[in-house]
Structure to design on (150 residues):
């Protein structure tokens, strides 16, 4: 039996560098979503937001491609009279873009509600932003910043 067995064939795979910042061993079970693990494990995470979107039925065709472009994952739409209710997940970094596009897509009638849902692995380049203040992890830089304020 030297043939290789492929686990989860056809599934996307990503490689993550993980650092345990805890003083103790952090155990992760194989059946638990990795991005929901202990916050003491540092790796690239991206917040996902659950969304609820009410749109007029005749605008659904314009809204769905935009959701796909924003990497949103809507569940099956539910019909409510002449409206569709969409629920699903969207990367937190894309919510503002959806909020900006929605009025034009739905003639100003679409209603969007969002709330934090979970963390998920970052796909593609890791988002970065320049530090706007002192770095508390760099002791020398932090102390210089604190001393200047005293």
């Amino acid at each position: 039996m030297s043939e290789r067995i492929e686990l989860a064939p056809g599934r996307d795979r990503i490689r993550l560098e993980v650092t345990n910042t805890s003083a103790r061993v952090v155990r992760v079970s194989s059946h638990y979503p990795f991005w929901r693990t202990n916050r003491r494990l540092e790796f690239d995470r991206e917040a996902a937001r659950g969304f609820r979107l009410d749109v007029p039925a005749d605008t659904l065709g314009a809204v769905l491609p935009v959701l796909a472009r924003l990497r949103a994952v809507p569940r099956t739409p539910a019909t409510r009279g002449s409206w569709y209710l969409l629920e699903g997940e969207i990367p937190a970094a894309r919510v503002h873009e959806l909020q900006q596009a929605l009025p034009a897509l739905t003639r100003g009638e679409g209603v969007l509600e969002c709330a934090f849902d979970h963390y998920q692995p970052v796909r593609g380049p890791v988002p970065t932003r320049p530090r706007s203040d002192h770095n508390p992890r760099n002791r020398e830089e932090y102390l210089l910043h604190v001393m200047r304020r005293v």
Q: What stands out?
A: The longest helix spans residues 95-105. The chain has three helices and seven strands. The two ends are 70 Å apart (CA to CA). The helical segments are 60-69, 95-105, 139-149.
